């Protein structure tokens, strides 16, 4: 049985797929809202160790068709290193159709179009990408290490390389004072940057990062309640009237008060009606005890 360096994180949709740790931790690891890899020092695992894990995984699950490369930053690896991993996956897993990993905004900027295209041709064809917000001052406040224009450039490059992007936006990230700017900036970015999937999460701070997150704001941070979060969600979807391509939308992550699913912009009105029903109390919200990361 594969032995992982814990804690191990993966997107909800990768729960039934083979996971191979190509790196440990996150090379950036400075986002003030994120506690995922604070216990780990970023490490590029040796190619020999990764290939041995692939051999072990294939011996246990030879029919695996999808693989997630953990931890938080596999795309930071040199391209030739990644190609060796992808080639070995294809060799040992004859039914392999898709390899995915998390991607930092900096990853897409550092990799050339030729490199991303080569990786896509070797079946690394889905990237999980944290937009968080499209509002530049907020991105600076939370130490995201990214700008809206930089994210637009990177996402356009991934589109050219025929990679699929599953992006996330964090509702409540600006608190009560800056929520409109947060949502409006995010709308502007999404209207320019082509993505395939969009998920919203609600701000959920682990106790270990709460002080550093709150310290980044010039005035006292005031958290949004559920009704206000739904107002943010409504404003986001209401204004996504035109997009570069059809987007599959979900808000089914465990942090969300309201689970939504549809295609944008086609299902805009239905999704808005569901949010309105939740605000009016005719549609139930997820109980607090069932929410979390």
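^ Assign residues to that structure.
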């Amino acid at each position: 049985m594969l032995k992982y360096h814990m804690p191990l994180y993966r997107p909800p949709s990768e729960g039934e797929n083979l996971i191979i740790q190509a790196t440990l931790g996150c090379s950036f690891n400075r986002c003030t809202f994120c506690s995922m890899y604070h216990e780990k020092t970023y490490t590029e695992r040796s190619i020999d160790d990764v290939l041995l894990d692939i051999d072990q995984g294939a011996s246990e699950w030879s029919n695996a068709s999808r693989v997630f490369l953990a931890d938080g930053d596999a795309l930071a690896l040199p391209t030739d290193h990644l190609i060796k991993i992808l080639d070995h996956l294809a060799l040992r897993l004859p039914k392999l159709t898709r390899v995915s990993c998390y991607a930092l905004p900096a990853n897409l900027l550092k990799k050339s179009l030729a490199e991303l295209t080569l990786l896509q041709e070797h079946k690394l064809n889905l990237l999980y990408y944290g937009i968080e917000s499209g509002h530049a001052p907020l991105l600076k406040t939370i130490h995201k290490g990214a700008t809206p224009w930089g994210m637009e450039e990177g996402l356009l490059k991934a589109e050219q390389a025929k990679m699929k992007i599953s992006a996330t936006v964090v509702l409540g990230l600006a608190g009560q004072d800056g929520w409109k700017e947060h949502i409006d900036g995010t709308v502007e970015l999404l209207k320019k940057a082509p993505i395939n999937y969009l998920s919203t999460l609600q701000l959920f701070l682990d106790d270990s990062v709460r002080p550093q997150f709150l310290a980044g704001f010039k005035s006292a941070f005031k958290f949004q309640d559920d009704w206000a979060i739904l107002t943010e969600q409504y404003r986001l979807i209401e204004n996504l009237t035109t997009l570069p391509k059809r987007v599959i939308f979900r808000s089914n992550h465990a942090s969300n008060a309201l689970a939504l699913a549809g295609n944008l912009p086609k299902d805009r009105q239905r999704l808005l009606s569901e949010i309105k029903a939740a605000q009016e109390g005719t549609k139930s919200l997820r109980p607090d005890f069932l929410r979390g990361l």
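The beta strands are 18-21, 23-24, 43-44, 66-70, 98-103, 124-132, 164-171, 197-202, 247-250, 261-264.
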